[in-house]
Design a protein that fits this description.
It contains three helices and 13 strands. By secondary structure, the protein is an alpha+beta fold. The longest helix has 20 residues.
């Protein structure tokens, strides 16, 4: 993260000995949820609405040009318009200087792989869960949003056992092609 994301000293060190910012914008960082090729996702508290959110912060080199930033913002706006119970809701996109991040719904649970290891689901339960995922992805396709990185890490299963499709960071909006 650029220094602008963390104006004060880091308050925590995560499991990989990386300094965590104390805040990004108005959001107070609690911990790192994940890190991948696209960037970092943090669990944060939104003091204005008193709720937990997930902040997705892409690596700065992925948004180096104005066109890359505009494509990212367009995709985030498109994802934010989709309303479906099994899609992780995009609440807003923020841009502060060079820093751009997505504020999205925090799903308390596990990714599909972790959930499957912890719950040892029956084949029938797996089919039921995958059917929900397919219907959700179909809904996104009907709205011209294609998820190009669908994998177990991007499928979150909440505490009630319901799947949620996350991380449209590598999605392709068919309407901008």
């Amino acid at each position: 993260l650029p220094r602008t994301a963390s104006p004060s000293a880091a308050r925590d060190v995560d499991e990989n000995a990386e300094l965590l910012p104390t805040r990004i914008g108005r959001f107070l960082i609690r911990r790192r949820l994940g890190k991948g090729g696209f960037g970092v996702v943090y669990l944060a508290h939104d003091p204005g609405l008193d709720r937990l959110v997930a902040l997705k912060v892409p690596r700065s080199e992925l948004l180096a040009t104005g066109q890359e930033r505009e494509n990212f913002l367009h995709e985030a706006r498109t994802a934010a318009k989709l309303k479906h119970p099994a899609l992780v809701t995009v609440y807003e996109v923020q841009q502060e200087g060079e820093l751009i991040y997505i504020v999205q719904e925090y799903i308390e649970g596990q990714d599909l792989s972790g959930w499957a290891r912890a719950n040892n689901p029956s084949p029938e339960r797996i089919v039921s869960l995958i059917k929900e995922v397919v219907e959700t992805v179909g809904f996104a396709h009907q709205h011209d949003l294609v998820h190009r990185d669908l994998k177990p890490a991007n499928l979150l299963v909440d505490r009630q056992g319901h799947p949620h499709v996350a991380d449209f960071g590598l999605a392709l909006n068919e309407s901008v092609q």
